[in-house]
């Protein structure tokens, strides 16, 4: 008789099987912590259903990794290695996922490698796997790395499907089965020409999920408030950023509520009550000739501008935030497509993908946030007096001053 498997009922894929080894990993405290780490951080303040966690995302990523590994006809040992790597790929995520990561001086993958390599989890994993091989895959390295962390990987496929399902935003629905069935493994994952439309659909989905979910303006406000408080905790040594893998969402909320710093306590109280900051200035990046220039602005430059604005408008500098939205980076555009035995970049095959590359700056903006009680002070704020902004595209807007352009 074969090994008895356990099945977990998943909201996206239905039944997902786990072998005994995987079940034991699942029940370890390091992995169970992920039940208490929200996948989308504070986005449930905007989409109340977005309470799914890194726990189910990790299981879903393992499921898709297994499907792809089987489709690629890997050996049984390789399939098991892909499964365990996909299962553990987010085990080091800090509280509220990417929200806390935005404050740390290193990416969450470094904490993931630490949890796998340096905690009690290591001894059990080493009974069956090479820890270095797991960490290589999580980093996207080696033959199997692109499956879990690459240009068209199972991590992205799962979070698009899962985030769409739980937020109720339909943009994230993708044909993952079509993508998986048309991927081949050479030195990297290569997409067959028959899978191009499904890949285009995934890219379009990500493009629309950015303004609707990941970079929704209220999401950015909540994230900036939490990060400002978390930074205070780290700078005052109330917490150590190297210990973030130990905390869950509830731990961090409790630490903030009991902080010695009144600003930190105020931020968490505002978030608890959804008393969020408001936008007082919004400039869309598409209005600039060279929007990439803004992304070269250092955090020190932004903080200096915040201090100067706060001083001029007579308010506490901690309560004013300048935020530049992220834009979709579309690593999938680098995917190689196989056409009659020759390889071409996806951007050369698909007009849609090329258009998305040009349109990625239509989404983000630079915004200024303050408490709603201070909003009226900033009617005459001119951001160009404090930051070196790129040149306006005058041909497009016929000399309209950018304070008047697409404010929303």
TrEMBL record:
Source organism, top-level taxon: Archaea
GO biological process, one term: dGTP catabolic process
Domain HD: 54-160
Molecular function terms, GO-annotated: dGTPase activity
Pfam families: HD, HD_assoc_2
CDD domains in the cross-refs: HDc
The protein's name in its UniProt record: Phosphodiesterase
Source lineage: Archaea, Methanobacteriati, Methanobacteriota, Methanomada group, Methanobacteria
